[in-house]
Amino acid sequence: MIKKVSIISPCLNEEKNINRFLDAIGAQDYPHHAIEVLIADGMSSDKTRELAAAWTKAHDIDVKIVDNKRVIAEFGNAEALKVASGDYVYLMGADEEMAQTDMISAFVRAFEVFPDIVGVEQEFLHIPGGPLINNFLSVIHIGDLLARDIAIKPRQVEKKVIDGRVFRKYEFYPGYPSTMFLKREAITGFIGGDTYEEGQVTLRLALEKNNKMAMIDNYGVYHYSIKSFGHYLRKLRRIALKHTTRIQERKTWVSYTGARTYIFAFLHITLVFPILFAIAKAIQKRKLLWLMYAPMAVITTVVYSWNWLKLKITKKKAW
Question: What torsion do the CA atoms of 61, 220, 91, 13 make, to the nearest 10 degrees?
Fold first, then answer.
């Protein structure tokens, strides 16, 4: 029996990205009748809705618009989940693009290869000709360096090569934030609430020891996330606001990283560690993009520290 896949995309004013996002889904070799796309739109004022509606009329994949009147992505995720009907749920930004036409098929296959996993994590892939800072963030596999360094890394426990694909199984632990292609049955307890926060989902699964996931070598998305350095700084400020709001309300994945936040914040500011680490990684991975680690580590930590202090004083919240 073919499993149904629900792709949820929280978005706001994505007219420049929405067709590329949908075209990559439309190019998938997975049966189109078993794919639904739920666009949780934060009441866009551009042509996002019109373009999505036009795309739907011209293709055989079910695309629905879900109103997200509270605008913030976590609220949109929750609203879309309430109407999602897939056996698997996958959150994607409208600024992302599936890199392979067999990506959904491969991800579903991973659950057959490793029946005990709860999800499949995608890679972020280098975009040919893409902005330098955007491709650097793809290389480090996460949106900012401080989060990358303080996260508790998963442990590989098994590897299988099937039909030319390399499937790896990992155990992940509290303190590891992730976006995954998830089994719906693993997240039923999160459906129906006001918000759906990926970091909190991963944390709960890890705490419950329901913590097996897979990755497939070189399978993932192109993430057109950052257009410029200024855009990166603005995005960091928004992330800082959301993170501060979360830790005021509950434990988050960072609560389980111990003193790593303070240790790496200090190491970043010293600049000596980032320079040595950047050189070592550039040599090890044979990618010069890693040399950006040093300045970006300092900038990221300064921005986080300043925004954390400012938000502590103003008591501002993201929601």
Answer: -80
Maximum distance among all Cα pairs of the chain, rounded to whole angstroms = 56
Beta bridge partners of 169: 158, 214
Q: Alpha helices, DSSP H only, in the chain?
A: 18-26, 48-58, 73-83, 103-113, 132-140, 145-150, 198-207, 229-249, 260-270, 272-285, 293-314
Q: Got the DSSP string for 104-129?
A: HHHHHHHHHHSTT-SEEEPEE---TT
**pTM of the complete model:** 0.93
CA distance 155 to 297: 24
Spans of the chain below 50 pLDDT: none
Residue listed under structure tokens 């795309």: 55
Dihedral (CA of 105, 106, 109, 115) sign = negative
Q: Which residues touch 150 (CB under 8 Å, ≥6 apart)?
A: 175, 254, 257, 260, 261, 264
Instruction: Identify the three-state secondary structure at position 309.
Output: helix
Mapped onto helix, strand or coil, the DSSP state of residue 171 is strand
Q: What are 59-98's pLDDT values in tens digits?
A: 999 999 999 999 999 999 999 999 999 999 999 999 999 9
* Contact (Cβ atoms closer than 8 angstroms) between residue 271 and residue 294: yes
Q: Does domain 5-227 have CATH number 3.40.50.150?
A: no
